[in-house]
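Key idea: predict the complex, not the pieces.
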Amino acid sequence: MFLQILINSLIAGAIYGLVASGFSLIYSTNKFVHFAHGATVAFSGYMLYFFFGMLGLNFGFSVILAILFAGALGILMNILVYKQLRSRRAGNAILLIASFGILILVESLILLFFGADVKTIDYIAVSRGLSFYSAIITPLQIVIIIVSVILFILLMLLMKKTRLGKAMRAVSDNKDVAEIVGISAESIYNWSFFVGSLIAGVAGVLIGLEQNLEPTMGTSLIIKGFIAAIIGGIGSAPGAILGAFLLGFAENFGIWYLPSGYKDAIAFVLLFIFLLFRPQGILGKKK
Amino acid sequence: MFSAYLIHLLILICIYLILSLALQLAIGYTGLVNFGHIAFFGVGAYTSALLVLNGWPFWAGFLSAGILSALFGFLISWPTNKFKGDYLALATMGFSFVVYAVLLNWTDLTNGPLGIPGIPKPQILGFSFIDNSDFLVLAIGITIISYLIIKRITVSQFGKVLEAIRDDELAVKVLGKDTLKMKSYALAISAFFAGIAGSLYAHYLTYIDPSSFAIMELVPVLLIVIVGGLASLEGTILGTFLIILIPEALRFVGFSSSIVGPMRQILYALILLLILIYKPRGFYGKVDLE
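Result:
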């Protein structure tokens, strides 16, 4: 039992981490809560269903298309909405409300085109879980954990080693100074939306395979993603991943004692405790 | 037939107007971006429904709905006192989720996802408001009283202090005012009216379930406040009529009911984004958010 909860926590943590790291990357440069990130994840899952399930394209090709479409959606959101709001110096609360609007818009469009019924992408036939002592883990879940670990390492390398990553960190630290040394903040905003949304795309593909697709999946995922990002230290990618695993453990061990319907409530209570006592999160720096 | 439909819409407008005026008091006048508002609405609806079903008279259930919601509003303002803007929105959104989870899972009390059927229509001094046109009279009466009280608050000295807190909390503190106390009162009053709106809602529909109080249901209310403009009660009245009536057009175009739902959400989301981008102060807004 204990081992099974441990494995469930790890899988939940990996999934939340995929959502949280992209969200956190966008937050670090843009400095506002991009709630519609959840819609990008759902969109990617549905795009995979559309290309693979409905059009019958090659699976690998469909996955790549779904991830690229997610990246494009991220840039589109930035250019059509956030850029306009930034240009008239809208406050953070306005940007949050706008991102909430985008989330509802995308979710409702998905609902309109694909319907409310649950969709499954049956690429991998339901495979028997591998027994691991007394616990069970499916091959797909192992893939999820491996892919997320690889992605986290790539993200770290991107931020630490590449020119783009350094420019992102410069804009994140001080936008005005970054612009003085010749970094275009607007283009960095676009890049961070693109990279963050690509990660959301990977998350959407994996979640689409592991769970079923529902139009409202984006909302519940981004709530977990942003809670993970905040408790880990908002704007810090390693923090977001740490927060994601902490959240995964808290939820799965929490519902050992409570009815499983309280999962969301556990997450929010955890958020609330952090906001009260350590608002900068585990790895965040004090403002 | 048409008049019955019109009466139904007017009752909905009354309920949403009270709910939106209450949110206007929090966001527009005090600067508290409260995403927990829909939870106060839910607490009010469930409190009133459960008490009246257990034999309490309507007026007692109605007032208890307001008072219990106000208590929650008062309590929530203490831990969130330090937050402003988007952080406050996220923290109060958490409250919405917790209340929603409790409504859904505390099945012994709330009957869970099945909801509570058979909530009696209001009965005051032996007169039953069973007929919808009678209910409309009651709803209009309560709406006017609520409006007058909120109006009175906004023009009072207390209201001016609230607006000062919205514009510059530190300055108000320097003047020696207890801003935490002021904000708690404002949120409690706002929650009170959300609670009585919830009571009206429950006794009008005679059936409630948790889905009416999910975070998505905050969208029209928030939209009304933003479309009408911050710190303007007149704007909120106009906003309520617009936001409740515009999606009704979808019914007449002849969309099937499975499409009307998502279409209404799309419409709301588009109006919200367009207003934020092109007319950020709404119709009568006096201030910008933050």
